[in-house]
Design a protein that fits this description.
single chain; alpha+beta; Arc Repressor Mutant, subunit A; 2 domains; three-stranded antiparallel sheet; globular
Length: 117
Amino acid sequence: MAYLHTRYAKHTIKVMRQGETRCPAEQTLTLIGGRWKVLILYHLVPGTRRFSELRRALVPVTPKMLAQQLRELERDGIVTRKIYAQVPPKVEYSLTPRGKSLKPVIAAMCRWGKQCR
């Protein structure tokens, strides 16, 4: 069986071709793994946010990296983007139903993080 190697943080994860993984947690990591994705989702759980609001909430992230992570989340059907035709351009991001299904995962991560302080 042929594998692709995907970089996640400082580790390489073997992912089978055609999107198959050996473990369901691995599939989750391929969708929300990334330096900023979980934090983006955390800030979108309460509701819709503009790009500038997300950027302020995630101070060290560069606009380029934030846009890239949002595009990946949008591509994977987790986040939806709404563009308003106005000057200056207004773009809002919100969770899709698939993204909302990650709320318990994000909440569990927050609870675990509080316990490990």
